[in-house]
Write a structure and sequence with these properties.
By secondary structure, this protein is of the alpha+beta class. It contains three helices and eight strands. Strands 1, 2, 3, 4, 5, 6, 7 and 8 form an eight-stranded antiparallel β-sheet that branches. The C terminus is likely disordered.
């Protein structure tokens, strides 16, 4: 009987360790915590896809901090050395069993305003913010078929990347 109780206890402990929850908070076309100029005609450089998070530990019911969504967004932008993020996915994570975590994760494509050296460098792909019938888009100067929707005129909540 004690062997079965030990096995049951181990199963519950393992279930507690692997049990957790990640919830998708939402998808955003563009997000930023920085002051950046997003006027039509502005030039931007895509830095790549990055992730940032803000996580707080919980140790025996005592939180070591309080996660902040702004900090997670800042860390994502800073990871890409950028000004704003497009195609953003926000997630909240929490798990706990004597020790646990709670926090936010931000993933997306980081962009920054093109510098003078970026504009003068033909090897750097630059994107221009343009108004279209569909809304505002970042359109590649090299290949206009490559673009990223920033604001959709018909549906402000939509995300498209083509």
């Amino acid at each position: 009987m004690t062997k079965n109780l030990k096995l049951l206890a181990i199963v519950f402990i393992l279930a507690g360790f692997i049990g957790g929850c990640t919830q998708r908070i939402g998808d955003f076309t563009v997000i930023s915590t920085k002051n950046c100029n997003v006027e039509t005609g502005g030039k931007f450089v895509k830095k790549g896809s990055f992730e940032g998070d803000d996580i707080a530990w919980i140790i025996i019911f005592i939180p070591t901090g309080s996660p902040n969504l702004k900090t997670a967004v800042d860390r994502c932008i800073e990871a890409g050395d950028g000004d704003l993020i497009t195609n953003v996915v926000l997630s909240a994570t929490n798990w706990y069993f004597l020790v646990g975590q709670v926090g936010y994760t931000v993933k997306g494509d980081v962009w920054r305003a093109a510098s003078r050296s970026d504009i003068d460098n033909p090897n750097v792909e630059k994107f221009t913010l343009v108004n279209t019938n569909d809304g505002k888009q970042l359109v590649s100067d090299k290949d206009p078929s490559v673009h990223c929707m920033v604001a959709d005129a018909s549906n402000p909540k939509s995300i498209r990347y083509e």
